[in-house]
Write a structure and sequence with these properties.
The structure holds two protein chains of two kinds.
Chain A lengths: L4 H19 L4 H24 L9 E9 L4 E7 L3 H18 L8 H20 L3 H10 L1 H11 L4 H30 L4 H6 L4 H18 L8 H8 L2 H26 L1 H27 L4 H30 L5 H33 L10 H4 L1 H15 L5 H16 L1 H25 L7 H4 L6 H19 L2 H19 L6
Antiparallel strand pairs in A: 1-2
Chain B lengths: L9 H20 L6 H20 L6 E3 L4 E3 L1 H27 L5 H18 L4 H19 L6 H32 L4 H7 L6 H18 L7 H8 L2 H7 L2 H16 L5 H24 L4 H22 L2 H28 L15 H4 L1 H15 L6 H14 L3 H27 L13 H19 L2 H10 L2
Antiparallel strand pairs in B: 1-2
Helix pairs in contact in B: 1-2, 1-4, 2-3, 3-4, 3-10, 3-11, 3-14, 4-5, 4-11, 5-6, 5-11, 6-8, 6-9, 8-11, 8-12, 9-10, 9-13, 10-14, 11-14, 12-13, 12-18, 13-14, 13-17, 13-18, 14-16, 14-17, 14-19, 14-20, 16-18, 16-19
Classes of the chains: A mainly alpha, B mainly alpha.
């Protein structure tokens, strides 16, 4: 069972997606239930994944290795460690609200809609499971196809522009990574990620590979200034697409930094760490200001995502500054812990925020803040959820948003005062843009007659928002299990990141 | 020479005999049984493939006819691919030809003589056989392009193709004569032995003419001018043929002539091919973006793929040739499907060759749209489709020979290329169909084959090992 658990997690949703596709639009009633059953089953399979996970080792667990292309020493090799496991659970968890939220709303080609999301779920889990770089790239790129179709078919008026921009941006980033991976294969004679991590590389080689990786992962995260595809994609994507994009796909960029960049090119990372930190701080501060002025709720949350993901890259790359300032690695793990928690937390919160906007959009068909006002008067339960998620987004203690930001800011203090001063600006800006939006949308007198006619959450919507709220609070008040799962892997990663790979 | 030693030449011998039979059959029964020749031709191809497997499966290189003819594992694989590809193109084309009243026996005879030319070229062991194969293939194809006599555009394309093709043949002959003059032998093995390390001006001059001829045949920039015109002007069934089977032969031409015949001068011809490859990639991908005609767009896309194939030769190593062979086979597989979709989307009096004709194809014909979308993603090089591995293999060969800048150009150009492939998907899936478009061809057999074609692109993409292994095995 344990040798196949990851394979089942990958292929179960994909198989279900194909079944839904074959059932076709005529049997969509059955198709919906198959989708729900598959996504719930995938989450259920995460229970043994988490339960039987050994929290004392940084080694890959649940490993499976089958020859794929023997001539290239490429394997169908799967495994998880403390960095990938929480992200897999997050992926499985976030797909369920997507399936449920589309239940009545999606009337155009619903079978394809569900199939696309299920196939994407499998591919995304594959990205986090793969321990072979070629397999990783295979899943990483294949995922673009369903997302391209989701935005293009079910998106808003400018969907074609948004989806082609999304595809080409990510594709451009990825092909350079592919070139770098093949280069390392030619040197190492294997596509195993562990072999790449152990491969000695000169500083020049590391610099080239660093920038190839940076392009791929920075586009995906996205970091300023290659972030411009994200607001477009988010605004045009259907609610489900936005949720997956924000909750999972952005995390792949962060995952790439932790799994590939830091361990494979540590010396180049040390050399260019200020570049990443600067870009992260620009994302945190500048993009925070940009978010304030957005008139469109989805765009606002998209910019807020960029700012929050800035914390992830900041936390990951603080390690070198901490070593420089304190001479030890003791605080470095804290930054990485913060980055990881921030990824999980942002996945939950941004997903929930997009679902909230989706709830409003389904009723009013508008995402403009100006079209709302006083929603709480007609939708009190929804108002409560929206305020909770908004506060979590600003990093209120007791919610998951607090834990990640707090750890990163704490770590940045060790690196230097100015890092933390700039990073802490997000606490003000985050509160400003999120709460101002909530104030204009949720509170105040009833804005117009459309708002007056709104009906509160139905059972389905209550279920998904309630579940998300519970998890956000749980991670906020009790992050210990999550941190414990990550602990050995983060320690191992810090050791890899501060080591040198330059051959002597 | 005992009789059984000719066994390795079974494909050519059988095909030559079969051509006579098909021609006679057409002359006596063709008028009464329309379409019977088509069936007979498919039968010939199936029997030919079976005989090839039975008799011509050589485990090592065999030379016949005083070294004029080489049968090796590579030739075996390429010939089987030739049988398969021609059979599929003829299968796809039948309804199309019927609708245009050009379902004539001669079409099939020409396809078979072209195939014979391909085989001769694949097994060429001397400069003479190379030329024989090139001309047999080219003359058959010229006639096929002009096959629809009523069409002025087709006649114009055929004329352009013929004139430019004649120039290329002249170049080839001239280059060959120089090389012959310097080495005193026509045998490719003899030339390889004679020209080990000498870089005399004469060799480089002869080489330049040969490279130009190869580039012309492949459609590499700046010798690509004929390609878009021929692809657009020819009847789509002929475009389907021209775009697929001959590529196998031209790969063999490049391999036998340059890689196996002139390995001593590899430094020179790789250096000549390098700018051609870069230009081909850039021009093919950039110009394809502005096309509004699908056949023309795919013609430029072909050019860009040729750029990748040439890059395999630029690497100039066994790994590079393997990559080029793999890329060529994959490209042929993808082109078969893509042009097959155009053939099937066209009806009597309606050529589905403009991009607008594919708007909302998903609604009109989900299968065709799905097949085309898979092929487009594959051509763009997105996994899980097989086109990804073809590009990967080329990049690997370039890294092995430390061509950093070529890798960068190749990956950037594949992103540029992705744009126009995505646009096709956008047209088919995101746009609404126009009111008045005729239904697509509904014949079950053809659609089934097309489905298999697309499924192959996916299955070979998920499990690429067997074909990659095969390619590595047959290149020496």
């Amino acid at each position: 069972m344990h040798h196949h658990l990851l394979s089942i997690l990958i292929w179960l949703p994909i198989a279900a997606g194909i079944v839904v596709l074959l059932l076709g639009e005529r049997n969509i009633g059955a198709g919906r239930w198959v989708s729900l059953a598959a996504s719930v089953a995938t989450l259920a399979l995460c229970v043994p994944l988490w339960g039987d996970f050994d929290t004392h080792t940084a080694a890959y667990q649940f490993v499976q290795k089958v020859a794929w292309i023997p001539r290239f020493h490429a394997y169908y090799a799967l495994g998880v460690d403390g960095i990938s496991m929480p992200l897999i659970v997050l992926t499985a968890f976030m797909t369920i609200p997507v399936v449920i939220s589309g239940w009545r709303i999606i009337t155009k080609r619903p079978a394809q809609y569900y199939a696309a999301f299920l196939i994407m779920e499998g591919l995304m889990i594959g990205v986090f499971c793969a321990t072979d770089a070629l397999l990783f790239y295979f899943f990483w790129e294949a995922m673009l196809i369903p997302m391209f179709l989701i935005i293009g078919i079910w998106g808003g008026p400018r969907r074609v522009y948004a989806t082609i921009k999304f595809f080409l941006y990510t594709f451009l980033g990825s092909v350079f990574m592919l070139a770098a991976l093949i280069y390392m294969y030619v040197k190492a004679g294997s596509y195993s990620i562990a072999a790449f991590q152990a491969l000695p590389l000169t500083l020049t080689e590391q610099r080239w590979i660093f920038f190839a990786f940076l392009l791929a992962f920075a586009v995906k995260v996205p970091m300023w200034p290659v972030h411009t595809w994200l607001p477009d994609a988010h605004v045009e994507a259907p609610t489900g697409g936005s949720v997956i994009l924000a909750a999972i796909m952005l995390k792949m960029g962060g995952y790439g930094f932790l799994r590939f960049m830091l361990p494979i090119t540590p010396d180049a990372c040390r050399e260019f760490n200020m570049l990443i930190i600067t870009l992260s701080l620009i994302a945190v501060v500048y993009i925070g200001f940009v978010a304030i002025v957005q008139p469109d709720m989805k765009k606002l949350i998209a910019y807020s995502s960029i700012a929050h993901m800035g914390f992830v890259t900041l936390g990951a790359f603080l390690v070198y500054e901490i070593v420089r300032a304190t001479g030890g690695v003791s605080g470095a793990a804290m930054g990485m812990d913060g980055a990881m928690v921030q990824m999980v937390s942002h996945g939950l919160i941004s997903g929930a925020m997009f679902l909230c906007v989706g709830v409003l959009y389904d009723r009013m068909h508008s995402r403009q803040i100006a079209d709302y006002g006083g929603v709480v008067n007609t939708m009190p339960i929804f108002g409560a959820f929206m305020v909770l998620f908004a506060l979590a987004n600003t990093g209120l203690p007791g919610t998951s948003g607090f834990v990640g930001e707090f750890l990163v800011i704490l770590a940045s203090f060790k690196a230097g005062f100015w890092f933390s001063a700039l990073a802490a600006v997000t606490l003000i800006l985050g509160a400003a843009y999120t709460l101002w939006m909530v104030k204009r949308v949720v509170f105040g007198p009833v804005g117009n007659e459309h708002v007056a006619k709104l009906t509160d959450l139905d059972g389905r919507e209550f279920l998904i928002l309630g579940a998300l709220a519970a998890v956000v609070l749980l991670v906020g008040v009790w992050p210990e299990p999550l941190l414990k799962v990550m602990e050995p892997s983060i320690q191992h990663l810090v050791a890899q990141a501060v080591a040198t790979k330059i051959p002597v | 020479m005992p009789m059984h030693s000719f066994a390795a030449a079974t494909p050519e011998i059988f095909l030559a005999a079969a051509i006579c039979v098909v021609l006679l059959f057409e002359a006596f029964f063709g008028a009464r049984h329309r379409g019977a020749t088509a069936t007979l031709t498919l039968l010939v191809l199936v029997i030919g493939a079976a005989l090839t497997v039975a008799f011509a499966d050589v485990s090592h290189s065999v030379t016949l006819f005083n070294g004029m003819y080489v049968a090796d594992p590579l030739a075996f694989v390429l010939k089987l691919a030739g049988f398969l590809v021609v059979a599929v193109t003829l299968l796809y084309s039948r309804t199309y030809l019927e609708n245009r009243d050009i379902l004539k026996g001669e079409y099939y005879v020409l396809a078979l003589t072209a195939l014979l030319g391909i085989f001769v070229l694949i097994s060429a062991g001397s400069l003479l056989t190379v030329y024989l194969g090139v001309e047999l293939l080219a003359l058959s194809v010229y006639a096929m392009v002009a096959f629809d006599r009523e069409s002025g555009v087709a006649a114009e394309s055929a004329m352009k193709y013929f004139v430019l093709g004649a120039i290329a043949s002249g170049m080839l002959l001239y280059g060959m004569s120089i090389i012959y003059g310097l080495t005193g032998t026509l045998s490719l093995a003899g030339i390889a032995a004679a020209l080990t390390a000498s870089h005399s001006l004469g060799v480089i001059l002869g080489l330049a003419f040969l490279v130009v001829a190869v580039a012309f045949k492949f459609g590499a920039v700046p010798f690509h001018m004929w390609l878009p015109d021929v692809y657009e002007g020819a009847p789509t069934s002929v475009t389907l043929f021209v775009g697929t089977a001959p590529k196998i032969a031209y790969f063999a031409l490049a391999l036998r002539l340059l890689a196996y015949g002139l390995p001593g001068a590899a430094v020179d011809w790789t250096r000549m091919l390098m700018p051609l490859a870069v230009l081909t990639l850039v021009v093919g991908n950039v110009v394809a973006i502005v096309q509004s005609n699908l056949k023309r767009m795919l013609a430029y896309s072909t050019i860009s793929h040729v750029g990748f194939i040439v890059l395999g030769f630029v690497a100039g190593t066994r790994s590079g040739y393997t990559a080029a062979l793999y890329y060529m086979l994959i490209y042929v597989l993808m082109a078969l499907g893509a042009f097959g979709v155009i053939v099937l989307a066209s009806r009597k009096g309606f050529e589905a060759d403009k991009l607008e004709d594919y708007k909302g194809l998903y609604r009109r014909d989900p299968l065709l749209a799905l097949v085309m979308a898979m092929l487009m993603f594959s051509m763009a090089g997105v996994p899980p489709f097989v086109g990804f591995w073809a590009k990967l293999r080329i990049i690997q060969a370039l890294w092995e020979t430390s061509h950093l800048w070529l890798v960068i150009i190749a990956v950037v150009m594949s992103v540029v290329g992705a744009f126009y492939y995505l646009r096709m998907v956008k047209l088919m899936y995101f746009d609404e169909p126009p009111e008045t478009l005729p239904a697509t061809v509904r014949s079950f057999g053809v659609r089934f084959t097309l489905g298999i074609n697309a499924a192959a692109v996916l299955v070979l993409g998920i499990l690429p090992a067997p074909l990659l292994d095969l390619c590595t095995r047959v290149i020496r």
